[in-house]
Design goal:
By secondary structure, the protein is α+β, with helices and mostly antiparallel strands. Helices cover about 35% and strands about 25% of the residues. The protein has 2 domains: about 110-190, Pdz3 Domain, CATH 2.30.42; about 195-390, Alpha-Beta Complex (2-enoyl-CoA Hydratase, Chain A, domain 1), CATH 3.90.226. Helix 6 (about 215-230) packs parallel to helix 7 (about 250-255). Residues about 1-15 and about 15-25 have low confidence and may be disordered.
Length: about 400
């Protein structure tokens, strides 16, 4: 039997429903408002505390305050407070250095330096194709001045930035060796960083070493891969030891010709939604591949290794990898600075995310710590495994 209600009763029920809805909505809105009030109050207290610290420091600090460094330090402290080892605030100079490093091309003299105990710069390495590679400069030389300005007065950051400069311009550095100061003049150049090298291990097995994934890595990788296959390589050993990662876009371009068509890896965000991270087209290199890793194999390099294992049944040889499976995006600001922030984690569509755990090799092989024993046991094992795979084909 159908039941009916009067119009008046219907209106009464509707009124009650609206009232209940209003009360519930008001309750949650009030809760949300109260939470925001607490947050604002807490923030206000922190800002007030920061102001108190600033006042105290300015009244009592013995030395002169570098306002720019102080400001950047405060911003760095905020990101540091996230307690995430991969997120960071970058000063304008640091951000430009990161962009240059990511591109695979740097401008300068092709030297790396470190600050010594006295505050000067010690030359730690000299690139083979650098403007100074054929000069009198030696590893261990101490840079005491740049363009006539003392490094101690300039500060380490400004001194390093002054050495970099622009391509085609000249720079004078004064080095100290055996107590003697020697002024030297050089012309800065744009230097391409080599991140991929290769060679044939025998008539059938090619070896490729990828040291990082930079903007120019795919071009180098494809060139070396073509050279090896043209020289008769029927199998590959890909060495990712000490590869700390780099650009995931470069990784995708390198690994694409090796894998079958389809979604290879995904990224997962805070709200649990996922997006395609690595996709491979229909081209695929159908030869056996073995990967070598160690404890310094991280991030994009780990994803490269596990992708080959998941989709090509490639063996992994070496040691447990580092375990970085999260993505950072870089947000630039108008003043030239930037924030690199962790926003997602990633994994292949076959395996779990390896962040914090790393990748366990199929053949755990540890290198010798004996300085006299220079045998590359991990490469030897990879060669052995690759020979076995070749014999099965």
């Amino acid at each position: 039997m159908n039941k009916k209600i009067s119009l008046g009763l219907a209106l009464s029920i509707a009124t009650i429903a609206c009232t209940v809805t209003f009360i519930i909505t008001s309750f949650f809105s009030l809760q949300n408002f109260n939470k925001k009030v607490v947050d604002v109050k807490e923030k206000a207290e922190k800002y007030q505390q920061l102001e108190s610290i600033d006042t105290y420091v300015r009244e009592n600090f013995l030395h002169e305050i570098d306002e720019e460094k102080l400001g950047y330090g405060i911003l760095k402290g905020y990101i540091s407070g996230l307690d995430d080892k991969y997120s960071q605030y970058l000063t304008p100079a640091e951000y430009q250095d990161m962009l240059a490093d990511d591109s695979g091309k740097i401008v300068g003299l092709g030297i790396t330096v470190s600050e010594d105990a006295s505050g000067y710069l010690t030359i730690a390495s000299i690139m083979v194709n650098s403007p100074v590679s054929q000069s009198v400069l030696e590893i261990g030389d101490i840079i005491v001045a740049v363009d006539g300005k003392d490094v101690l007065e300039m500060g380490v950051d400004d001194a390093i930035a002054s050495i970099s400069g622009t391509a085609g311009s000249d720079v004078e550095i004064t080095i100290r060796r055996d107590g003697k100061d020697i002024p030297l003049k050089f012309t800065r150049q744009t230097i391409e960083i080599t991140s991929v090298t290769s060679r044939m291990l025998d008539d059938y097995i090619g070896y490729i070493k990828i040291s990082s994934f930079r903007g120019n890595t795919p071009e180098q990788f494809h060139s070396e891969l073509e050279r090896l296959t043209m020289n008769g390589a029927k199998a590959l050993i890909i060495d990712l030891r000490n590869n700390g990662g780099g650009l995931l876009s470069s990784l995708e371009k390198c690994i694409d010709p090796l894998l079958p068509e389809g979604v290879i890896a995904i990224e997962k965000y805070k709200d649990e939604h996922t997006e395609t991270l690595i996709y491979s087209d229909e081209s695929e290199l159908n030869i056996p591949m073995t990967v070598i890793v160690n404890g310094k194999t991280a991030s994009a390099a780990e994803l490269f290794a596990v992708s080959l294992r998941d989709f090509k049944n490639s063996a992994i040889v070496g040691e447990q990898t580092y375990g970085k499976g999260v993505i950072q995006v870089t947000k630039p600001f108008d003043d030239g600075s930037a924030v690199a922030l962790t926003i997602a984690e990633y994994q292949t569509t076959v395996s779990e995310c390896f962040d914090g755990t790393g990748i366990t090799p199929d053949y755990i092989t540890v290198q010798s710590n004996d300085e006299i024993d220079t045998t590359d046991y991990q490469l030897d094992k990879a060669f052995e495994v690759t020979i076995e795979k070749l014999s099965e084909n």
